[in-house]
Design brief:
With 493 residues, this protein is of the alpha/beta class. It has two domains: 125 residues, Aspartate Aminotransferase, domain 1; 227 residues, Type I PLP-dependent aspartate aminotransferase-like (Major domain) (Aspartate Aminotransferase, domain 2), CATH 3.40.640. It has 16 helices and 17 strands. Strands 8-14-13-12-11-9-10 form a seven-stranded mixed β-sheet, sandwiched between helices. A four-stranded mixed β-sheet has the order 7-16-17-15. Helix 4 packs antiparallel against helix 13, helix 5 packs parallel to helix 13 and helix 6 packs parallel to helix 7.
């Protein structure tokens, strides 16, 4: 079912796969903070929702508005709605899908189709002109992103760590489900979108991670938004945590702060000051590839009465007994003080997201979680393929050993720290140098990722290399040689 060596279609590396750091939320995507010289100090200094207390640099960004002035659209339902008093066509908070809110949180009915309240032609033109100017500034700073059709290349850019996306058993399971259920789920999980495949996968994932229950989402991003919003209260985030966690904390409307990356002393200080409900981290960080000290983190969060939310996107299938993740590897599987989130798009080679934890969490998410209630269910065929991939991953100890061997080999060849799983990011100089390095690799048939601010938590541009055990050994060795041979000359800048 797979294509020949070195011919697997992969994303073009010049598409700049800026994947996953909390800094993604730091600099506004529309180019605010970008000057003729690039990203200014004000925007480059911010990470996620807020500045780390211990991080050097300019003053911290202003805290978010107080909860009473924020309507997030993501949180739990008020008591009246939970009691069933909301209209049948309303959201769990009693508002309809067409309601909007003004700055004081007052519901405002959206303007009708008649055009009342529409922008004037002149105002509309000004909007597009402003966005065009911002795009031009980003281009001058080397920060343009382009989605390009993937080309044939040796794939060290995608996240298919175990090569399961094209495994015959995975494709067969997906094809059978496609024939039985059709292309899409046909509705949200609470309407007509739930099949036996969804429930079977949730049960299998809970067993795999040692948790009590699990809830599927259509993406890992929505899973993180749903989990954080469900657990109301202040949030502390590792400064390197994925953008979706920082976005979730901000959209939830409460107070949020970051602590210095993997800094237990800074975390303890902020636990005492903020008294958060949640501390959010990744088990394997998606930019630098390093691991979180989960046992020590759990000891601190438990002592301060906070839940530890662990994003296992890059650890499921690659880390822990049978690939059960970093939480299980730390001996914390099933702990009621730990919530696991993950995506199905990495080692499982599929798509979707999942939240796993106590049964009370599943019930709460089903009743009140807006990213669960109002979203169309993941396609059954995709979940069937993911289920087959999960079963294969459990028995893939040999592939995990090969992943670790290749990751160490890549780190040695590229002068980067040995990663905890399958992703590493050698420094590349500035944004233009990183993009040019990726393009030179592409010209020689090697696909790599490219990280540039604001997607890098340390504001350094990097090449992003992911290990894929489905790539033949000879191609992998060739790809490393190409990456090293095309590295920017540090003396040229």
């Amino acid at each position: 079912m797979s294509e020949g060596p070195g011919t697997t279609p992969v994303p073009d590396p010049t598409a700049m796969q800026d994947d996953h750091s909390g800094a993604e939320a730091a600099t506004p995507a529309d180019g605010a903070g970008v000057t003729e010289q690039g990203v200014d100090d004000r925007s480059a200094s911010r990470t996620g929702a807020t500045q780390s207390r211990s991080a050097p640099g300019p003053e911290r960004a202003a805290p978010p508005p107080s909860p009473e002035h924020v309507v997030t659209g993501l949180g739990s339902a008020p008591a009246a709605a939970q009691a069933g008093s909301a209209p049948a066509d309303s959201g769990v908070d009693g508002s309809t899908k067409h309601d909007r809110r003004d700055r004081t949180g007052t519901a405002v009915r959206a303007s009708s189709r008649s055009g009342r309240g529409a922008s004037s032609p002149r105002g509309t033109t000004a909007v597009w002109n402003r966005l065009t100017r911002k795009a031009d500034l980003r281009a001058k700073a080397g920060l343009t992103r382009t989605a390009r059709v993937r080309a044939a290349a040796i794939d060290l850019a995608g996240n298919d760590y175990l090569g399961l996306s094209r495994h015959p058993a995975v494709l067969d399971a997906a094809a059978a489900a496609l024939a039985e259920h059709g292309l899409g789920a046909g509705g949200s999980r609470l309407v007509r979108g739930t099949t036996d495949l969804h429930e079977d996968f949730e049960a299998a994932f809970a067993r795999h991670t040692g948790t009590e229950t699990a809830v599927l989402y259509s993406s890992g991003y929505l899973a993180n938004l749903g989990a954080v919003a469900a657990l109301a209260g202040p949030v502390l985030l590792d400064a390197h945590a994925h953008a979706s966690l920082h976005d979730a904390a901000r959209l939830a409307g409460g107070r949020s702060e970051t602590f210095a990356h993997n800094d237990l002393d800074d975390l303890e200080r902020q636990l005492q000051a903020l008294r958060p409900s949640i501390v959010a981290v990744e088990s394997v960080y998606s930019v630098l590839g390093d691991a979180a000290p989960l046992r020590e983190l759990h000891a601190l969060t438990s002592a301060h009465g906070a839940l530890l939310l662990v994003d296992e996107a890059h650890a499921i299938g690659t880390v822990g007994p049978h690939g059960s993740g970093g939480v299980a590897a730390a001996g914390l599987a099933g702990d009621p003080g730990v919530i696991v989130t993950a995506t199905l798009s990495k080692a499982l080679g599929a798509a979707g997201g999942i939240v796993a934890g106590p049964a009370a969490l599943r019930r709460h998410l089903h009743d009140t979680g807006r990213t669960f209630v109002y979203d169309t269910a993941p396609p059954p065929a995709v979940i069937a393929g993911a289920g087959a991939a999960l079963a294969l991953a459990r028995g893939a100890d040999g592939a995990r050993g090969e992943l670790a061997r290749r990751a160490a080999l890549a780190a040695s060849a590229l002068g980067a720290p040995v990663p905890a799983a399958g992703v590493l990011s050698p420094a590349a100089g500035d944004a233009r140098a990183a993009a040019a390095w990726a393009e030179r690799c592409a010209a020689k048939g090697v696909a790599v990722g490219c990280f540039r601010p604001p997607s890098t938590p340390d504001h350094r541009s990097r090449l992003r290399v992911t290990v894929n055990t489905g790539v033949p050994e000879a191609d992998f060795t060739k790809a490393l040689a190409v990456i090293e041979a095309t590295r920017p000359d540090p003396n040229s800048r």
